[in-house]
Amino acid sequence: MVGYTVADANSYIVVTGSGIEDVRITKTAMVWPFQRSARISISPFDFEISLQAMTIEKLQFSLPAVFTIGPDDNPAALKKYAMLLTGNADGTAAGGSRTPTQTGRAHVQTIVKGIIEGETRVIVSGMTMEEIFKERQMFKTKIIENVQTELDQFGLKIYNANVKELQDTPGSEYFQFLSRKAHEGASNQAKVDVANARMIGEIGEAEKKGRTRQEISKIDAQTAVLETQRKSEKAEADANLETVQTKLNMQIKLAQIQATRQAESRDAELQRDVEMMRAQTELERLRATDLVHAKIERESAQQKADARYYTDTKGADGTLYRQKQDAEAAYYRATKEAEAAFIAKKKEAEGIMEMAKAYGQMANVLGGPQGLLQYMMLQDNTYEKLAKANATAIHGLQPKISVWNTGAEGAADASAPIRNLFQSLPPLLSTVQEQTGILPPTWLAQMPQQPQNQEQSAMVKKSGMVNGH
Fold it and tell me: 457 pLDDT band (50/70/90 cuts)?
């Protein structure tokens, strides 16, 4: 139909044809030749379903529900709805005519019902019957979310969903048994509650009678106590009243005296302020007179201060430059002294290394480290120093040595003790060598190994016979 078309408040006009890429959805449109228009209603519609589902425990039940669904009122959703769901299921316009008319909704309800049944069965198959009962709101929310996700591709929106009470399927009495169980439990609990209420009433009645008598006695005793307390409080209140009255009279007199003193003080302050204003006026007059002289003197002092500042600045710059030069000279001198000390230490180390090499060569010449040690001990007069130290240690001693010779052999040889003393030196030197590794000089003693041991044994035996031990 060619002409200007206006949609109702709850509908839109869908225009297709020449000059339009796919569809154009609007409230008002001018339909030109080679163009077609149709109206789509966005009013939501209700439909009821009774779904047969099975829980994860293999329990079948009937789920009656009512859904309110309609096109979503936004351009993208309306475009999907107009392109996918307008007209009849075979693709023709509603009513079988080619003129603009209301779109049919029978096949829309069929599609929506299939989506709701499929998503609901998926959700129920993963839940127990107890979870469905206890978490009804979560169950409803899951169904709405999953169904809405599928309806988005058709431009539809769920406005409301009402899940009714679960019902038994034909041949199943699960919910009937649950209802009977709950009824019997409530009936038994009611009987128990009635018995408890009767018991509580009888006990409460007895308690009330006893407490009534107790309260009457307590009230009589409290009344007597309160009368005594009230008399005491009245006497105390009278005493407090007299005390407060006395304090108030005293405060009134003090306030009168204070007001008089404040008036006198205020009068003195006003007179002082008048005198101060007179003095200030005179001061301003004198200040105005001396202002010009003071300004001249200030400018002169400023010029002198600038001159002194310039002189002091230049003097400080000269002092700083001289100190900097002195510091650089001291740094250069210290650097050179450090370098000289480093070279001296380096040369000293090199000398020590050369001396170490010379000592090594001397050790090779003298037959090893032992020969070098003996040579150095002779060079440093170590043996002479040891002899002097031993002599100093025994200096001043006056030993009395008595030599007793017994037997014919001892009488014949009076030098046997001295000989025996010298004969004991080789074993002593051998022991020193074994314990310390130091050999005696070759000019002092040369001792063979085996013969020495035999000779030592012979000398020990002979010494024993001579000394008689």
Answer: very low
- CA-based nearest residue to 413, from 403, 399, 425: 403
H or E segment and range at residue 63: strand 60-71
Amino acid present at 216: I
| Tokens linked to 462 | 């002979």
Q: Which two tokens stand for residue 70?
A: 């309609």
For 255, phi and psi rounded to 5 degrees? -65, -40
The helix or strand, by DSSP H or E, that contains position 262, with its residue range, turns out to be helix 174-365
Q: Give the per-residue pLDDT at 454.
A: 47
Per-residue model confidence (pLDDT) at position 411:
52
Q: Is the whole-model pTM more than 0.85?
A: no
Cβ–Cβ under 8 Å, residues 392 and 381 = no
pLDDT of 397-433, one tens digit each? 666 555 555 555 555 566 676 777 677 777 777 777 7
Give the whole-angstrom CA distance, residue 178 versus residue 186: 12
User: In this structure, what is the dihedral angle of CA atoms 175, 180, 183, 189, given to the nearest 10 degrees?
Assistant: -120
Task: Judge contact between 47 and 137, C-beta under 8 A.
Answer: no
Render pLDDT for 149-176 as a digit per residue (tens, 0 to 9).
Answer: 888 888 888 888 887 777 676 766 666 6
Q: Is 57 helix (H, G, I), strand (E, B) or coil?
A: coil
Angle 425-436/450-467 helices, nearest 10 degrees?
130
Instruction: Find how far residue 308's CA is from the centre of its chain.
Output: 62
In contact, 47 and 122? CB cutoff 8 Å: no
Burial of 15 (0-12, 13-18, 19+ CB in 10 A): buried
Question: What average pLDDT is seen over the chain?
Answer: 77
| Residue 451 · residue 430 · CB < 8 Å | no
- Residues in a beta bridge with 67: 47, 161
Contact between 423 and 455 under an 8 Å Cβ cutoff? The reply is: yes
CA distance 94 to 456: 145
Q: Please give the Cα distance from 412 to 416 (Å, whole number).
A: 9
- Contact indicator for 102, 41 with CB cutoff of 8 Å: yes
